[in-house]
Amino acid sequence: MSARDTILARIRQNRPAATALPDIHAVPFIRYDDQFAAFATLIRNLGGDAVQLPDGQSVADVVAARWPDAGRTVDLTVPQHEEVDDPHAWHDVDVAIVPGQLAVAENATVWVSHPDNRFRSIYFLTQKLVLVVPREAMVDTMRDAYARIQLAEHGFGAFISGSSRTADIEQSLVMGAHGAMAALVIFV
Amino acid sequence: MKDDSVKHPQAAAEFLKDRAQAKWHDSAIWWVRQKRDAQAKQLPEWEELRRLAREIKAHTLSQLDDYLAQFEANAQNNGVTVHWAADADEHNRIVHGILAARQVKKLVKSKSMLTEECGLNPYLEQRGIEVVDTDLGERIVQLRHEAPSHIVMPAIHLKKEQISELFHKELGTEAGNNDPTYLTHAARANLREHFLTADAGLTGVNFAIAETGGVVVCTNEGNADLGTSLPPIHIASMGLEKIIPRLEHLGVFTRLLARSAIGSPVTTYTSHFHQARPGGEMHIVIVDNGRSDILGNEDFYQSLRCIRCGACMNTCPVYRRSSGFSYSYIIPGPIGSTLGPSRDMKKHGSMAFACSTCGSCSNVCPVKINLHEQLVLHRKKAFEQNLLPAGKKMGLLAMRFLTQHPALFDLGGKVMRKVVPIIPESLTRHSAWSRAGRDLPPMPAQSFKELYQQRSQDKQDKEGQQ
């Protein structure tokens, strides 16, 4: 018998008595009166920042104002964006501007799964990550988020909250562990 | 590698010799517990979330074979290769087989307690494959040739001075520069090179979704994402208990995991992997290694609900004051102290006694495992299997005799209350109680039983008067 069949047979023999699957929608979860305020307050503690795009400005304007000396910048929000043949080719990206499909108020995460992106390495190699999210695409909790997300990018999708960070040295919080050193969410 | 021959009392005594370090360890970990509480209090539905998580996991375990088969079929539909490993050795052989067939020289790994359990790193290194642990804490302990001392904070036993010294030697950082930001960014630069030159990436798995055939990995550092988005091969190793039925159930578990683990609302990255990156291949190795046996044990199967958040060790008064290296099993603290003895009572039996039975672990556990009750049951097993040190066994037998003979118990108490206050200090100085720097407590005038009888009598008298 294969390892698979042996394992499954032993589980079948040993498994405990059946219990019901609960309905996770039957319980009321927290609601936020001002979702943007909750999101923006939280992300500041997570190595990020959130702004609403001011009238008359473009995303590029906001990014340029924030990082006037930015190096290689790649903007995946435009239809004819730059593309590479190897995921390593994104290694020197300084600013990546990417579309986020959904924002979650309770934990300041943004769902990223872009049907028009080839190599997801850009989200993690870039030094500064800019997530562009439609204003109306905001939910209260992760339960609402999972009801709406789609895995549109080669079977991949991620919730990203702020910067890459670690507290592995004496519990001191340091931004920029392996991924982005800074994160900016722009609601458009 | 983990020293699995340690016995908790002796190892803890050794750890406590450095009082300043022990005090720091205790307070650093307690701080994480407090952050967890602050997060929990922000959600009115916190206790309901724990109940839902418990019930989802309990249901999944009751149909685990069906969900595993469903997961496998859906993963295969996504183009992922699924492997099954009955034990640690089979897991290691499968992983090595995948890597060897593709001439992999360097493997970057993100955090995986399962591969620690299986001893994967030495297995691969002996066969000529360079293994680079990429979680900062895991990298630190790897460079020190140690095992992680905590499942979420692997290097919590170390001070920044020790890490600075290590990085100076291994990465060429400035001698004496102990700044955590400087040290972290030095490791970042070094590990980026490894990510960019690795031939394969291996991750653990936080959740495996039966409905979609995908796996979810949560990190704050982004190391799992870099390790799987650059090299062409992604191997995900998972214990078979990681299954959840549906995608929507992550709406419960992702709300609990980071809040329980580190007191953050969420991890930086909650990544859902269903396919390899374009041009790559993805493998999932499903590992049993004793889990299906635990499933069949009425007393202990609930431990398979664990989502490895570490909240139980952060709250544990014994763990905080003894550190992960005092535990013989690779997973320390309350959850390790039930998983270890379930796996090998002879080797890990002493862990079940590293517990004050205060129950705090069970009260913070996001999936409501009855941890402290399981530890008591393991103690019973250890006693029955005659695995206790002679002194402990004699003590327990004496206690049993006393509790079975109430008159003798009362007499013993009376004698103790009279005798202890007049024992000269020179005789008690070396008792386990006094060695920790404590004075003997003052003896009460009456026993609990006497007090209780007195109060009942008083109450009756009072009611009689009314």
Automatic annotation (TrEMBL), chain A:
Gene3D superfamilies in UniProt: NagB/RpiA/CoA transferase-like
Organism: Aquitalea magnusonii
Species lineage: Bacteria, Pseudomonadati, Pseudomonadota, Betaproteobacteria, Neisseriales
Residue ranges constituting the LUD domain according to the UniProt record: 92-188
Protein name: L-lactate dehydrogenase complex protein LldG
Cited Pfam families: LUD_dom
Coiled-coil segments on the chain, per record: none
PANTHER family: LACTATE UTILIZATION PROTEIN C
Automatic annotation (TrEMBL), chain B:
MF annotations from Gene Ontology: 4 iron, 4 sulfur cluster binding; metal ion binding
Keyword Iron-sulfur listed: yes
GO biological process terms, semicolon-separated: lactate metabolic process
Basic and acidic residues composition bias: residue spans: 456-466
Domain (4Fe-4S ferredoxin-type): residue spans on this chain: 296-318, 345-374
Superkingdom per UniProt: Bacteria
Residues in coiled coil: none
Keywords, ordered alphabetically: 4Fe-4S, Electron transport, Iron, Iron-sulfur, Metal-binding, Repeat, Transport
Region entry Disordered, spans: 433-466
Alphabetized Pfam families for the sequence: Fer4_8 (PF13183), LUD_dom (PF02589)
Protein name: L-lactate dehydrogenase complex protein LldF
Record organism: Aquitalea magnusonii
